[in-house]
């Protein structure tokens, strides 16, 4: 069975408590559980990792690649706006990924409109709250069906 990885970056462990007007009231455990259920219903297995550390996120991409994980759904949090190293991890492994954000990053501060990942992602989903993760998984599914 194909495995997909859900990777969440810094401060996303605070979901549910963190700026709920922007990020909603659902916590990360609930989001991960829902993602796993949807994955299983689609014939996939999902691993879920959250870290506040850039190096752990990078190592998670490397490990996913060496384990044969098919694709990644990533909410990079603020590292999406800043991390050349995370970009290089995706370029270096060639792992296909979808970038997701809960909030609409284009409707916020200017610096959030810049992503170092979007142009090398399969695509970007932004602004649908917790549903962004479901849409990310659907996008991965469509990609895997087309590219297998
Ligand atoms: C976010 C948007 C980022 O700009 C921010 O730094 C986050 C959350 C989102 O899901 O909307 O941590 O990735």
Written account of the structure:
This protein is of the alpha/beta class and 148 residues long. The chain contains six helices and five strands. α3 (54-67) runs parallel beside α5 (84-93). The two termini are 13 Å apart. Bound molecules: 1,3,4-trihydroxy-5-OXO-cyclohexanecarboxylic acid (DQA).
Order of helices and strands: EHHEHEHHEEH
Shape: globular
Strand order of the largest sheet: 2-1-3-4-5
Beta-strand proportion: 15-25%
What is the terminal separation in angstroms? 13 Å
DSSP summary, beta strand count: 5
Average pLDDT:
97
Category from helices, strands and their pairing: alpha/beta
- Please compute the radius of gyration using only Cα atoms: 14 Å
The quaternary organization reads as single chain
Main sheet record:
5 strands, parallel
The ligands bound in this entry are:
1,3,4-trihydroxy-5-OXO-cyclohexanecarboxylic acid
Low-confidence stretches: none
Q: What labels would you give this structure?
A:
alpha/beta, 6 helices, five-stranded parallel β-sheet, globular, 148 residues, single chain
Set down the secondary structure blueprint.
Blueprint: E1 3-8, H1 20-23, H2 28-41, E2 45-50, H3 54-67, E3 71-75, H4 79-82, H5 84-93, E4 97-101, E5 123-126, H6 131-146
Parallel strand pairs: 1-2, 1-3, 3-4, 4-5
Helix pairs in contact: 3-5
The structure holds 1,3,4-trihydroxy-5-OXO-cyclohexanecarboxylic acid.
Summarize the structure.
The protein has helices at 20-23, 28-41, 54-67, 79-82, 84-93, 131-146, and strands at residues 3-8, 45-50, 71-75, 97-101, 123-126.
